[in-house]
Amino acid sequence: GQDLICIQSMDGMLMLFEQESYAFGRFLPGFLLPGPLAYSSRTDSFITVSSCQQVESYKYQVLAFATDADERQDAEQRKLSSGKKLAVDWVLNIGEQARDICVVSFNQGVSSVFVLGERNFFCLKDNGQIRFMKKLDYSPSCFIPYCSVQEGTINTLIANHSKMLNVYQDVTLKWATQLPCIPVSVKVANFQDLKGVIVTLSDDGHLQCSYLGTDPSIFQAPKVDSREINYEEMNAEMKELQKIIREATKTQDILPESEKQTDVTVTAEVSSNLDEESQAIDSEVKAGAVPSVTVKVLCLTQVTAQKPNLAVCVQAPLAVTCDQFVFDDLEPGSSETVVLSVFLKDNCSPSELEGTCIVSYNIPTELNPEGIPRVSQCNFSLPLKLVCFPAQPSKAANHKLTIDTNKPPVSFVTIFPDFVDPSEGDQANALGFQFLTGSKTTLLASKTSQRYRIQSDQLEDLWLVTKELIHRLEEHFKRQNCKDFACTFSGSIPLQEYFELIDRHFELRLNAEKYQELLSERAVQFRAIERRLLTRFKDKTPAPLQHLDTLLEGTFREVIALADAAEENQANMFQAFAKLKSATHLVIMLISLWQKLSSDQTAILEATLLPLAEDTQELGWEETVDAAVSYLLRTCLSKSSKEQALTLSSQLSMPKDTSRLKKNITLFCDRLAKGGRLSLSTESATQQAAVMPGGCATIPESDLEERTIIPGSTAMFASHGQTTKQKSK
Fold this sequence. Notes:
Keywords: Coiled coil. It is built from 14 helices and 33 strands.
């Protein structure tokens, strides 16, 4: 007639209370962390799962007569105590931690102990023997056994982290249903006339009562009248429906015409001048002052927009002062304006000076009051002076390339007014760009020919200036209503210098793999030493540590040093990938100017050589580009049907070296030079294979290097604009 309460503490102590009075306390042997605890009334014992991943049973009678917890603290009192040592009744090793334990007895005289593990479900007898077990292919969150209608079996509800509730009869899955959340507790309850209601509690406190099955349908289908079928009317109706289907499939738009208009428009306006007071935050650029530019974003809605969120994205190493904005619900005709600043955060030049504004919102409807999700976005371009400033031009440089045009050269005062001193007038035919990262690029205009030269000590630094030059030239002649302006490139593609950047990036990826392996080994060693030390500390008879503490400290220092080295290598790999992307953009532009590729072919080329926005160890740039280039060589750039029959590997894995990639890129450029054209259709690829002249052999890397050496300023355009790598005498 009394209530007995057992409380398990974090240090492994079981405290027993009779009503409100404390009875006694006992420490569980070999305790490390508390596990689930249950009481079996049939055997009068407590069942728990220890840190050794064992199910252990302790009799109440053994607990009552064992050494008291207070007496255990003193060794002398423990020796003089009349209590017995706490002994376990039975033990079962399940090999994993337990989520929960439940003791049930539905039939007369039969009791079962259910244990829910991390990947298995166990049913035990009173003496610890396994009655049955079930291997689970998911991660369970909670469970509850309940009485089965079939004699000799027990039903169990098991919920998992995939928001599923599974019903088992012993080990057989009988039913599975979807839940709206992940439950942390599940019970079966009876409420008045409702029997077998499933009660679940989610981690955020939502209580739900539900039942299995579906609502009964009151609708009864009427009897079908037996009448003769008029085949002529059916054929006419079928033709009319097929006509409607053909008209609908002619337009490729997924959304209806009425939904084509954008409900919420977002525009971004970039300031023409840099901020007077820089807004750069935590910039790692070593330059004295890091400039920033203001971007004003305007969101205008024509409908009711619920939960509007604005995200402003720029590619690293650029950063924004704030990239996420949350607005209140917008009414029709209302607008929201935000102002932010963009600056260079990391100490490397970006590959793109562009950004994107994305607004996500919900539009409520009669059928869906919560709203239908919609997205609007816009792009904006950042000024070149955000990452560089005017400097003195350099005469000598390691890398040079020449862009040919079909129009007379334009004064730099006209196309680069923000970088040229107006006092120089039209005489300025050389312009220097000093990047914030420390490198310099020089732009030269020929006085006698229609050519422009870009030169720098680093290949990747040519990209932004070359792109800006071509863009400003196109805008200049567009304002003059000149429609036949064109740029061409007649030099050799700088593949050898490009391959050096690929090798540098791949070398850092290999280093990252080595650091990861070494860190894994040292971590295993650290945990092994830690386990041994814990065993020594828990031993009742003190024993010497045998320098385990010194070994633990040394291993810890090695782990920290390796982690610092891996972090530094990760930063270097990020900079190497940024340089590789800039050089890849440059190679894509030069190939498109060299072969006069259309916009569709240039898009295919960009998708081939720039498939990734971010580079990871699991999916890297080298293996992705190698697969894309190999596919084009096998399809639209193949020289025979035998090559088209070759199959490519379906798995992407990190290669051992970059020799295959460099060979494929060289062969790719060679076949473009021999008349190949980029296309994704198989028919054009087959026709092209028949038209392409002769066999296409691999270009020797030595032939790709230009042997002509151009002196600094005397013969400025004598080499017809080929990219050179100047050698010091």
